[in-house]
Amino acid sequence: MTSTISTASSKVDLSVLYLGKDKPLEHKIRRYLGSRINLYLAAEDYETAIALYKQHAIDTIVADTAFLRGMPNCAIHQFRHLNDNVNIVLLNENHDIISSPFELPCLAQQQCPLKPVSFDKLSDLVMAGHNQSDENNIVNITSSAFFHSSVAMTISSHDNKIIAVNHAFTQITGFQEHEILGKNPRILSSGKHDKQFYEDMWAALSHDKKWNGEIWNKRKNGELFLEWITINAITNSAGDITHYCSIFADITERKAAEEAICRLTYNDPLTELPNRRAFMERLEEHLSHSKADQSLFAILFLDLDNFKDINDTLGHDIGDAVIKETALRLKTCIREDDLIARLGGDEFTVCLTNLNTVDDASTVAQKLLDAMTSPFILEEERLYFSFSIGIALFPVHGESTQELLKHADQAMYHAKFSGRNKFSFFDLSMEQHALTKTEIVKHLRNSIGSEQFSIHYQPIVNLKTGFIDKAESLLRWTHPELGNVTPDEFIPIAEDIGLICELGSWVFRQSASQVKAWQEKYIDSFQVSINISPKQFQNESCDLEEWTDFLSQQALSNTAISLEITEGVMMNEGPMTEQRLNMLKHAGIEISLDDFGTGYSSLAYLKKLNVDYLKIDRTFIQNIHLNLDDQAMCEAIVVMAHKLNIRVIAEGVENEAQLNFLKSIGCDYAQGYWFSKPLPSKDFELLLEKKGAFIH
């Protein structure tokens, strides 16, 4: 806080307070006025100015408008309220002089007429202002600064009749000066505000002598517009209100832009659902309420199964349509008080409040799953989708939003790894699983191509001849720190982090090289079956034509390889899937359809894609010697496949009774622990050498 005071013996009994931080200018003014007036003071901040103003009988304030911008709103009006007769001279940034008796902190160079810098002129204004009357103040109000301001301004009498408007007012409202003078400002009323709104405004003007806020008004042509208005009540020396001065700007477009920005900030533009930011803010509110009344609420984390395949194969337009349709379906499953949001991509969250029991969360989760069962019909594509849903409960599974979301996410991954299209509640074992996943991600990238990976082979036996005609190639990973990591653990992770193409190509080359050696050493028609991930099939970066080139380089017949695909490849079949399947078929590579019977098995797909083998899933085989339904199912699959010239392989054969039944229904091939577990290549060779690869 700084101030300077200068006094002088002068015939003019006048006190001046200068407000500003421009010290060179202040020194010039002090030299100019200090010898002509009785008292000269200067202040660099609002508090000092008020203190000096109250301590001394100030006649004139000389203020730099740049300085006023840093002072509280209505600062100048506060000075006038303390002394209605104070003369006020404002200097703009270029030190050009204007004069105004009311607050105009928004004045800038372009909003007032420019005048030559003249300290004589400043001195004249200070001296003349000493004897100005109230009538002279009104003249100053309607000065050039008033008329040329870029913000709309009006002056009204104490009985609320408009006595002056400026050019900006006529531009904004459409009313010309002669049409509005003498009228009550209510002529602009839009009708959107109730009686209480205006009563509160007039109460504030009466008590505080000021009011500001947003008002909807109406232009002459009937169009509504939103304005930000500041109204100051001007009082005389007795404290009576003599005039009202209003300053307003049309903020309709600005408000619309702000609302658009707000929508972008808090809403997902594709689905119109709340986005992550909005969800997190409202989640904090729900958490506070639940802590206060100890109520149960749940967070559901939803992730579309295999959604990335759609973007990769059918394009992002179809993907966006799927997301929009999904959002509409989800909205029908929750209450109005519940919260649903799209976090991004194919991830959604739902917050269920005021639950009575845990079963309430299960019920809603099942409704969400059921909402996805009907097909999505998009541009003649018939697509099926499902969710994997993780659920975390407050306060059972956490007491902070971060903890609850993390646990719901972990539960979602558990549901995904457990087969998808289901929901899982969080439990502590998932925390450890998440830590394990983090470790796998950390080591997987650096392990590809190293000796940590190996191929094991499980024999596939021809049930008519008893010979081992084929083998399934199975990837194994033994890490020095993690130990044996199962394919069920690392394959989905490799898919998620984009390593499945590199890993799949390595498996293909290793397996193709191995079958070449076995054909030369044992059986020239020997075949190895290689699993291919749907991610490999639907990812453009996975060049499957390189595989056929590699077979040519190895001088291998393409029939030496059979590729095993799952129904997931077929279900969301697109142009790329069909194109690649046709390319492989034309190259002579045989195709096996794995896990048949566990999903949306379709005869139309079998016919269209022309597969060579069906593999009956082990879930149908394990009780086939005891369960009549399983027997009927397996026999029907064999008969159907043979009618379509498709050979059948049964997985998971573990005893002689299962084997005998499969032989009785004409199944072509079988594999399982009854014959052998998957073996490293050297041990598999020993098996081939026994009795000429014949197994009874």
Plain-language structure description:
This protein is of the alpha/beta class and 696 residues long. The chain is 43% helix and 24% strand. The strands form five sheets. An eight-stranded mixed beta barrel has the order 19-20-22-23-24-25-26-27, surrounded by four helices. It has a six-stranded mixed β-sheet with strand order 1-3-2-4-5-6, sandwiched between helices. A five-stranded antiparallel β-sheet has the order 8-7-11-10-9, sandwiched between helices. Strand 24 (590-596), helix 24 and strand 25 (613-616) form a beta-alpha-beta unit. Helix 16 (401-417) crosses helix 17 and helix 17 crosses helix 18. The longest helix is centred in the last third of the chain and has 22 residues, at 500-521. The chain is elongated. The N and C termini lie far apart (103 Å). Residues 98-116 and 133-142 have low confidence and may be disordered.
Chain-wise SSE layout:
Layout: E1 3-7, E2 15-19, H1 23-34, E3 39-43, H2 46-55, E4 60-64, H3 65-68, H4 75-82, E5 87-91, E6 97-99, H5 119-129, H6 134-141, H7 144-148, E7 152-157, E8 162-165, H8 167-173, H9 177-180, H10 195-208, E9 210-218, E10 224-235, E11 241-250, H11 252-266, H12 276-293, E12 296-304, H13 307-313, H14 316-331, E13 339-344, E14 347-355, H15 358-370, E15 376-378, E16 381-383, E17 387-394, H16 401-417, E18 422-425, H17 428-447, E19 453-462, E20 468-479, E21 483-485, H18 487-496, H19 500-521, E22 527-531, H20 534-538, H21 545-553, E23 561-565, H22 567-571, H23 575-586, E24 590-596, H24 603-609, E25 613-616, H25 618-621, H26 628-643, E26 647-650, H27 656-664, E27 669-670, E28 679-680, H28 681-689
Domain EAL: 437-692
InterPro entries: Biofilm_reg_signaling, EAL_dom, EAL_sf, GGDEF_dom, Nucleotide_cyclase, PAC, PAS, PAS-assoc_C
Protein name: Diguanylate cyclase
